[in-house]
Amino acid sequence: MAGSGTFAEIIGGDVFNYYSDGQWNKSSSGKFVPIINPTSRKIHFKVQACTQEEVNKAIESAKVAQKLWAKTPLWKRAELLHKAAAILKEHKAPIAECLVKEIAKPAKDAVTEVVRSGDLVSYCAEEGVRFLGEGKFLVSDSFPGNERTKYCLTSKIPLGVVLAIPPFNYPVNLAVSKIAPALISGNSIVLKPPTQGAVAALHMVHCFHLAGFPKGLISCVTGKGSEIGDFLTMHPDVSCISFTGGDTGIAISKKSAMIPLQMELGGKDACIVLEDADLDLVAANIVKGGFSYSGQRCTAVKVALVMKSVADTLVKKINDKVIKLTVGPPEDDCDITPVVTESSANFIEELVMDAKKKGATFCQEYKREGNLIWPLLMDNVRPDMRIAREEPFGPVLPVIRINSVEEGILHCNASNFGLQGCVFTKDINKAILVSDAMETGTVQINSAPARGPDHFPFQGLKESGIGSQGITNSINMMTKVKTTIINLPTPSYTMG
What are the residue boundaries of the Aldehyde dehydrogenase domain, all occurrences included (predicted)? Predict the structure, then answer.
């Protein structure tokens, strides 16, 4: 499939090549990294295991290409991004097929991810032209004690080489959310895709290649994190790192140089349900928020904090929907598909068993086959259970019954994470008060957490990250302010 037609050049034998200096290359290491299909649990794809020397060359090419790219007119950069977006959408089928095989994303969601990615690239081109096309003008006599003897002009200039590290769950969308802002801003990009999702990312990069970007401007290096991870993130020629993922981000932030960092590191997104909430709306949102893509989303509902007076009714409504979720392979567009790796499934099971041992009520029987875990709603969960605090990244949802809204806020804020949260109530005043009290980057009122639309600001507090995403915020982070000051001669006479 993936080695045929337009994409034939990106594979050599049965190993996908990496992309550097405008061409597809085999690694001199002679090694590959296997990609395990989560459904079959067998090797499905292989990608090159790049060496540190090859990473060095990719960064060197990126550095050289960036200098010329920064001088390319803004409208030309935008034109190439629009072209890449169109090609990406044209090739949605083969890229989506990779997502199905690599990360067990249901087929319809896989296609949606690619189309959304194309839309993001196009929007970024437009927004970049507007945002970067404006400078700022200041005059000196606006500050006390100064005459009008200086004009100050500011503009935004690129940083240099941007390192982009997206996660497995959205390997295309979260790659382009880093690539497009970097490119429109005049930076070059080095992409290190996740192992699961690497082939989809390589196909996506090929769409940029087909659009005709200058050689060296975009690189995509694959390989083992242990071999090239630290080498990339600590490289002296990397000017900015945009990372989405887990704990690794904390390690990166400790080791990286004094450069801008944009990091989103997961969450324990809490849903607080007040007594006056529309319970049908809550149930629909909790099921969608908690179980879509098998709960493998940073913005999934990870814990429901429900007022005791409505808990029985709400748990029943949620349960009625959970039992209707289809479970099986992603090719069949099932609602619940296998989680990405066996170790992920084992971790989810640990949390589930801990809750069972400590007396949580299971609304369904726990069931697992390989990486496939059936959806599980757990009631009467207590704060001392691991599932109440830790992020399972799977189709399991704990419900904690609360006596007051303050108790819900306390539980939410006790978390090390602070990505998103949500509150359900018909009282807008209460909603705003709860929103203000929740220590999270975003609070959704009467809807489940979600990252999109992709131009909205997206950020986390505490261990959920640093910096803010969203198209304009990303462009801002990947540029710096350049100031030019025109010193005017002191007038020797008064005009007029």
Answer: 24-483
